[in-house]
Amino acid sequence: MFSADDEAARILDILEIQFGCYEWFAVPLRNADNRQNVLDSLSTLWHRYSIARYHAPLQTERRITEARDTARKIAKAISLLKTAPRRVVAERYINGPASLAEYEKAIEILSRYQSELASFGKQKLSRGAKSDPVITAATRAAARIYTDITGSDFPKTIDYVNRKAKRGEKVFSTHPLNFVHQILNAVDSDIDAPQVATAVRTAVNPIISAKKGRKKSSITP
Predict the structure, then answer these.
(1) Which helix (H) or strand (E) covers residue 163, if one does?
(2) Distance from CA of residue 148 to its chain's centroid?
(3) pLDDT tens figures, 71-85
(4) Less Cβ around it within 10 Å: N or C end of the chain?
(5) Who contacts 219 (Cβ-Cβ below 8 Å, separation ≥6)?
(6) Which residues on adjacent β-strands are paired with residue 2?
(7) What is the DSSP code string of 54-106?
């Protein structure tokens, strides 16, 4: 007869084989020794869990359906992860109780992605939309993660530096925008800086900080 720990281990094995979640988030987060590595790990996580499923050749309607399906899969994985005994998780995948905080952070990140995908799956399409709803949803989630991890305000201005003058390619001059652009561009190389800039303007709104008496940027809910 299986014990609770045996059952948890079986569930974790299924998740690892069918959904690949532990190899994709526990190990990278465990090995992160500084903030930049954490950001790199999160970009990898974001790429594999959500927008990696949405490529330019797909029709938008199909992408919305896949977003809903992915959101359901992530919700199921989160539920299984939360109910698994933490000791089993720590021993099998995260090398000890000291890393459980990273495990909890990974669940939090997955929850955020699941929420973003569910929201994207519910939105109505507009033929005259200025930005691709997939890019906008992805930009919003990536920007939220950046601000959550770094504690820095996301820029409300779009600044470019022309590093490739011969080709006339626009490149972002600030790290937060580069962070978002690199994630999206890794999935679809046709996504250029102006497209991301449009999505940022759609997904990020300036607000007034009464406490500090200055303007800062906030990700729209």
Answers:
(1) strand 160-164
(2) 11
(3) 666 566 556 556 655
(4) N
(5) 140, 143, 144, 147, 154, 203, 204
(6) none
(7) --TTS-HHHHHHHHHHHHHHHHHHHHHHHHS-HHHHIIIIISSGGGHHHHHHH
Q: For residue 122, what are the CA distances in angstroms to 18, 110, 125?
A: 26, 19, 10
Higher-confidence residue: 97 or 208?
97
- Other C-beta atoms lying within 10 Å of the C-beta of residue 9: 18
- According to DSSP, residue 53 is labeled G
Q: Which residues pair with 208 in a beta bridge?
A: 215
- Strand 160-164 and strand 169-172: the pairing is antiparallel
Kindly give, in sequence order, each residue whose CB lies less than 8 Å from that of residue 71, ignoring residues fewer than 6 positions away: 114, 117, 118, 121
The total number of residues written for the chain in this structure: 221
Q: Which residue has the tokens 């250029």?
A: 192
DSSP designation for 174: S
Tokens of 33: 């020794």
Whole-model pTM above 0.70? Answer: no
